[in-house]
Records
---
Amino acid sequence: MTTTGTRQGRSRRFVGAIGLMGLACGVIGLAGCPFAGLPDSTALSETESVPIRDGVTVEVPLGAGAPGAADSTWAIHKADDDSLLFRIALGSNGEIERFFDSFVFAKEWLGSEVIPDTQVHPTDFPGGSYIAGGYVGEQDGRVGVLGVVHGLLLGAHLGTATLSFSGPIDGDRIDGTMVRTVTVFAKTPFPAPVDAEFDAYALRER
C-alpha cells in the first residue's frame, strides 16, 4: 500500500513536471525544446556603468550603495502626469533592498516587488523565477540607481531588463531621468515592457 502510494505520488509529480515543461515550450515558442537556443548565463556583472548625469557614468560594484541616501524610501513618479512608477527602499549603506509597488517591469510576470539580492526568487507566474542585482552610485550631490533583472522559466533565461534613475538630491526630492531597457530572448506569456526613457522625479517617504 505504501509503495503503491509513493509510486502514484511520484507519477503525478512527473506528469505535472512534463505538463509544465510542455506549457513552457508552448509559451516561449521554441522548436525542439527544452528551451533550445536560450542563453545560459544569468550572471550579474561585478561592476556596472551607472548613469549619474547626461553622458556621465560611474563604475559601481554589485550591491554598492549611496551613503547619502542610507535608510530611506523613495517613490519615483513620471514627470508629465505624476503617475507612480515604483518605490525603492535603500538600506544602511544606501544599497537597494527592494523595488516595490512596481509598474515598470513585467508586473504580470514578476509581481509588484523585486529583491535585488542576486538570489533566485519565484515569480507570480507558475514555474517562473528571477535573479536581480542592484547598483547605486553617488557623486557631487547626485545619485544614480541601476537595477538588473533576469527573468527565467523553469530555469531557462527568457530575458533581461534594466532600470536606471539618476539626478541631483535636493533635500527630499530628486529630479532626473528614468531609462528602461529590455532584451527578450523568447516569446513570453505577457507583453514584454519596451525600452523607454522619460523625465521622472523621486520623493523621499522616509
---
Amino acid sequence: MKICFIPIDNRPVCYNLVKDICAIDKSIELAIPPREWLGDLTKTAKTEDILKWLEQIPETDIIIISLDTIIYGGLIPSRRSNETLEELKRRTQNLKEILVKKKAKIFAFSSIMRISNNNYNEEEKVYWKDWGKKIFEYSYFTHKGTPVKTEIPKEILDDYLKTRKRNFEINKVYLEWQREGIIDTLIFSKDDCAEYGFNVQEARILETLGGTTKTGADEIPLTLLSRAIKKDIKIYPVFTEPEYKNLVSNYEDISIEKSVLSQMELGGFELAESYEKADLILIVNNFIEKQGELVMGWETKPYTNKFIPPQKPYAVADVRYANGADNNFVNKLLNQLDLKNFYGYSGWNTSANTLGSLLAGIKAKYNAEDSNDRAFKRLEIIRFLDDWAYQANVRGQINFPCNIKEFMKPYESRLSEIFEYEINPEYIYPWDRKFEIEVSNI
C-alpha cells in the first residue's frame, strides 16, 4: 500500500510517530515531506514547497492530509496567521487542483480553532497573555446565551472574531470538496473543548451542513492512517474502572467510553460483541472521579488492582492521567508483559491522542504483510520512555530543558531487559520546552 502523509507540524508525535508505525509493516510505502519544511512553535511550514512536492510524488493509493499545514502553515499558525480570507482561498484552490489530478483516496482533517481557558500565548496570538481567559469567558457565555459585559479592548476582540470567521469560512470550503467527491473522509477536530463556546457552536453548524467532528487534534491524522489500512479487526474494550467510564477526560467534551468508540469507528475497527469474540482486547486504564495530570498537580485515585494480561492479543491505552502515564499501572504492566500477545502501549497527552495513535499501531501490526518485529519494539520503547519515564517521572524533577540522560538510565535499563533490545537513546527538546521530548537513536 502506498500512503502519502502530510503532518500537522514537525513534533515527534506528529512526524516521527507515523514513520515508526508504518515501519512495523514493510509493505506500507510511506511518502512524507521533509521535516524541515514543516512548521513548529514559531515557524510556519513551507506551504509552496509542500504543494510542489505533493504535485510531483508518484502515484499513490491514499493521501492523508492535515489541511492546516497547507493552508495556514500548521496548526499553531492557523490561530496566529494574519492572511486574508481571499489569500487563503487562492491556496485552497491550488491544493484542490492537485488533489483532483492525483486520483487517490483523500483522508483529510482541519481544525476548528480552539479557545484556551488561560493567559498563555505560547501557541496563540500575542494578546492571549493578557486576554485569553477573558476571551474564553466571552465565548462561553455568549454561546450560552447569558448577557456578558467584557473588558476586552475592541480592536483585540474584533481581530479575534475576524480570525475565527475566516477559519470557519475555510472549513466550509472543504465541505464543498466533500460534496463534490474530492475528499473521501473529512474530519473537523475539536481541540480543548468546554460545554459552551464559539468552537462548540461552529462544530454544531458544520455537523448541520453535513460535516463530521471529532474531539482531539494531533492524533486524527494517525486515526486516519488506521482507517487507510484496511484490516478487519474486532476490538473489545475493557475498562480498569468500568463504573467510571462515563466520566469526561480533561480537554475533552465526551466521556472516555465515547472517546474510545469514536476513535475505533473512525479508525475502521469493529466493536466485538464480547471478550470471547474479540480479535484484540483494548485495555483502557481509566480514571476515578477526575482524570489526573501530574505536571498540573491534579491527582486522581491510583490503580490498585492486580494486572493480569489477557491470553489473546491486547493493547493498553493509559488515560488515568493526561500528559503522562500512571506509574502504578505501568509498573504492574511491565512486570507481567507478555510480548507474544502485546500490541502496544500509549499514554501521551489527551485521551484522544493516546487512543488514536495506539489504534494506528494496532492496525499496522495486526497480520502485517511483511512484519518488522524490531520496528514494533522500537516504537514501544519510545512510547514507554516518553509517556512513562519522562512525562510521569523525569519531567517533574527538572525546572527547564536540560540533559536528562542520567535521570532516564534506570528506565532505559528496565525496558532494554524486557524487550531484549539494546538501547542508548538520545533526548532533545524539539520545541525548546519541557512539554515534549524527542527520543532518538533507538
---
Amino acid sequence: MISGQISQIARTVQDLPRARAFWRDTLGLPEVMVFPGLAFFDLGGTRLMLRETGELGPADILYLAVNDIAGVHAMLAAKGLTVTGTPHMIHRHADGREEWMAFFKDDEGRHLALHEVRG
C-alpha cells in the first residue's frame, strides 16, 4: 500500500560542493548524508537528494514551507540571493486561510519558492 507521503525528491545539480554549501549554509537545511556525487538533506521529513551531473539541467520548483515568509524572504535577499518579486497572497480559502508565495533562485539560477499558509 502506498502511504501517500513523499519520502525523497531528487534534484540534479551541476556542482555538488557548491550546491551542498547553498542548501546547508545558505538555506540552513540539515545535511543527512553524503556519498560520491550525492548529498541528502532533510526537508521536514522528506529527503532531498542532490545528484551531481556536471551539467545545468531543468529542475522542478520546490516549494519550501515557512512560518514567516516576509522574514525568510528578507533574509535570503540579505544573503545576496536573487529574489524574484515580493511575498504575495495567491489564494484565500473559504475558511479564511491564505496561501502566500515568494520565489527566489538557487545557486544555479533555477527557481525555488517559499510557501506560507496563514490562518
---
Amino acid sequence: MLRISALSFAATLAVVGIAFAATPPPSVVVKLDPQNGSKIAGNATITHVAMEPPVVDVTIVLDGVFIPENEYPAGVYRGTCAKMGTTPEYRLKPVIGGRSNTRVKPTAMKPGPYLVAVFNTAGTHTMSCGALPMVHHVK
C-alpha cells in the first residue's frame, strides 16, 4: 500500500532501502535558501552509507558572505522554514569554512515535514533553510 509521508532520515533509508535493498539509493540534495535577510544559500546532500542499521552522511555546502573561521550551528528540525520546531531532531556538526559533514544513525521519527537549517553564530536566527522533500512510503 502506498501513502505519502514526510522525508526523514529514517524514512529515506527505510523507504528507499526497501525498494533498492541490493543497491544503495541515490543521494538526496536539499536546496538551502537564504533566511532572515541573509545572503547565504547552499545545499545539504544526504548520502546513504549503510542500510542495516541505517546510516547517512549529511554534507552542507554554503555559498555567500560569511566569516570562514566562525562556527554556524546546523540541524534537522520538524516543521517548515517559516515555523520550525525549537529543538533539532538531529544536531549536525557546525558549518565551518562553508562546509559541514555529519554521520547520522537515524531512528524512527514523528511524521513531518522536516527541514535542514543553518543558524547565525549565536544560534538565534536561521541563515539558510531547506525543506526535505516528500517521498512515497511502502508498507
